[in-house]
Each structure stands twice: as C-alpha cells, then as structure tokens.
C-alpha cells in the first residue's frame, strides 16, 4: 500500500503536535492553546519555545519599558552643553557674589577719588607695572573665591558647572563672527563718541619688559579670571533665573561698568554680549576665554605697534 502523506504538525509515526502560537478556538470544550488565558481569570502562562524554554512575556500595562539597546558600534550620545542646563544657583546668589567680589574694589576706588590729586603717582615705571599685575591677581583671586563660595560650593564642586567642558565645532566660526561684530560696534561708536583709550593701557611702560607684563595681564590673567566671574558665574546664574538673553544683557552691562570708564561702556557691553553668545553657542567657557584673549591680544599688539 502507498504511504500516507504527512500532514502539517504530524511527523510520520509520531503523535500530532499543535502548531505554536495557534489562536485559541472559542467555544466550550476547546483545547487550551499556548498563550490562552486559563479559566477563572488567572493570567496566561508564558508560551513555551521549542525545546521547553519559556519565551519572554510582554510587560504588564503601566510597567516602564526597558530602554532600547544601542546599535552596535554607535557612539554614546554627548552630554548636554554646560551653558544649556540650569546652573544650580540663581540671580540671588549671583548678586550676592557680585557684592562680595567687587565690594573691596569699589571701596578702594571710592577712597582713591577722595585722595588729593597731588599725592597720586603719575610716573609709569616697571615697578608700578609689576605692582599693578600683583594687585590685579589679588583682586581676581578674591572675586573667584566669591564666585566659588556662592556657586560651586553650593551646586557641586565641579568646574564643569562654570563651563570648563570641551567646546563643540562651533568654536571655529563663532570666535571670528563675534570678533567682527564687536569691531563693527567699536568702529561705529568711535565715529560718534571719540572715546579715549582705556586707562590701563597707560599703566605700562613702552619697553620690552612692560609689553611682556601687559601681555601677561591682558592676554592670560584677565581673560581667565574675568570669564570665570562674568560668564561662568554671573551669566550662568542670571540665565538660570531669567533665560540666556536676559542673563547675557545683565552680565554684559555689569562687565562694562566694572571697567570704570563710561565712555567705552558701549563697546565693552557689546564685547560682553559676544562673550556670552560664544559661551552659550559652544557650551564651553574655553571658547569665551579664547575669544577674550584674542581680543585683548590684538589690542596690545596695536598699542605696541603704534607707540
């Protein structure tokens, strides 16, 4: 006799095996199918895979889903830029740090205004330039300590909160764009106001040692400490409370007033806005430090060449 053809789910000489994942047939007396809910309202047992291993069941309603697996070889997502997140301190602590940081300087300036003009020293020497650099380091150190006390001491002792993070690729085009904008504002301002040069320029002798001291103060010391205080501390604190535009405007205004020369307030305000913008755009304080150093370096170079 010819052999009977094997039917689906039946192997020759073996008992029939129900196909996996077959939908349960309704009606009384229907055989239980894998995945079908048993009688009495109990939750269904997980279906069995081939070989008797249980298959993973779907999560219950309302249970959190596990995060999807990253693709093999895909780089991890970069952390958010430091300038985009909340700083951990707001405008109140920023104003407190401003008052503490600039309080001694304001008192000294007020005392200097009350002194007799005949007692002031007008002669510029190498010794007076060295004294100016040392005094600036003391003032900057006090301001940085005040910024730390009202920010990192409270929010977390991590320099990344001030913006000491790696900048993104916008570093390479934001600095030239910001520099061009500041120079345009300065050019238009000079046409209308005709301001005198900043007072600090006349505090250094036009000698090799004087130029070196001026470069150390204007290109190295001032960009680092001023950007920590005005952008890393003030701008971030104001931005956390009011948004980055208002934070940039307020910190830039304070930056301009801190130089104690109102006839150059507008260019300094524009410089402060540009420094806040490059910091926000690249997410790194290193960008504003580099831009500040470049701007001051070009100013020192122009002073040295035109002397």
State the main characteristics:
53% helix, mainly alpha, 307 residues, disordered N terminus
Element layout with pairings:
Layout: H1 91-114, H2 126-149, H3 152-155, H4 171-193, H5 208-242, H6 244-258, H7 265-282, H8 285-305
Helix pairs in contact: 1-2, 1-5, 2-5, 4-7, 4-8, 5-6, 5-8, 6-7, 7-8
Low-confidence parts lasting 5 or more residues at pLDDT below 50? 1-15, 20-32, 34-38, 55-59, 61-72, 76-81
What is the string of helix and strand elements?
HHHHHHHH
Continuous helix count = 8
What gyration radius follows from the Cα positions, in whole Å? 35 Å
Total strands: 0
| General shape | globular
Tell me what the structure shows:
The chain has about 300 residues and is mainly α. The protein has a domain at about 90-105 and about 125-155 and about 170-305. It has eight helices and no strands. The chain is globular and about 45 Å long. It starts with about 90 loop residues before the first helix and ends with a helix. Mean pLDDT is about 80; it is low at about 1-15, about 20-30, about 35-40, about 55-60, about 60-70 and about 75-80.
Question: What's this entry about, in short?
Answer:
This protein is mostly helical and 307 residues long. It has helices spanning 91-114, 126-149, 152-155, 171-193, 208-242, 244-258, 265-282, 285-305.
